[in-house]
Amino acid sequence: MATVLAFDVYGTLIDTHGVVTELEERLDASGKAALAAEFSRRWRDKQLEYSFRRGLMGAYVAFSQCTREALEFTDRALQTHLADVDKDHLMATYARLPAFPEAATALARFSAAGVRCVAFSNGTGEAVTGLLEQAGLLEHFETVISVDEVKRFKPDPAVYAHLRNRLEVTPGDTWLISSNPFDVIGARHAGLHAAWVRRSLDAPFDPWGIEPDMTVADLDGLAERLG
């Protein structure tokens, strides 16, 4: 049994593509509602790219700034010409994204089994706490641990060391749970165990020779294996 499960938030517990409906409404005025799903995908990809680039540059900013800058870029790239008020609404939607359907019940199973669970995110502590609270998930976590506390982004080894230091656990007793291969590889590289939540059957894992300890289709599958 793992001593602690550290759950990534965006894309693992919370559906980052839950913004598509709002995008459809905002893009409808320009007749580009059909681009909503593509916009969401590019926005998410660019958000992560910006965090990686800032990490390499040593130019840390809050994850929300990466998100806003990625939104601005995607608007330009797809020539959707969103008004500032639309961008503000979309950023507000990002703060109330929905949880994946099985997240609450799976986390409840871990709580009932006495497993220590923490949220571990690139987002700031305030942002992640608010997001999990509105999604009905916050009660299942012992605490929220943010990379903002060390001003680095995943997959910098420093953030995984910070996770262990905060929890006072050894690498072998710590599991990172994430749908993001870069996060899984980062955790494994830092000596942690890691489970990959492969939410799409089409999703490939990076061929780096660093594999997850476990692969599951969703959090219910994780609860079956580790709960």
UniProtKB/TrEMBL annotation:
Keyword terms, alphabetized: Hydrolase
Query: Its family?
Result: Belongs to the HAD-like hydrolase superfamily. S-2-haloalkanoic acid dehalogenase family.
Q: Where are the transmembrane segments?
A: none
For this protein, the record's Gene3D superfamilies field holds: HAD superfamily/HAD-like, Putative phosphatase, domain 2
Summary of the function given for this chain in its UniProt record: Catalyzes the hydrolytic dehalogenation of small (S)-2-haloalkanoic acids to yield the corresponding (R)-2-hydroxyalkanoic acids.
Enzyme Commission number? 3.8.1.2
Which taxonomic lineage is given here?
Bacteria, Pseudomonadati, Pseudomonadota, Gammaproteobacteria, Oceanospirillales
The UniProt entry, under InterPro entries, shows:
2-HAD, HAD-like_sf, HAD-SF_hydro_IA, HAD_sf, PGP-like_dom2, S-2-haloacid_dehalogenase
Q: What is the protein's name according to its record?
A: (S)-2-haloacid dehalogenase
Q: Which Pfam families match?
A: Hydrolase (PF00702)
The reactions it catalyses are: an (S)-2-haloacid + H2O = a (2R)-2-hydroxycarboxylate + a halide anion + H(+)
| CDD domains named in the record | HAD_L2-DEX (cd02588)
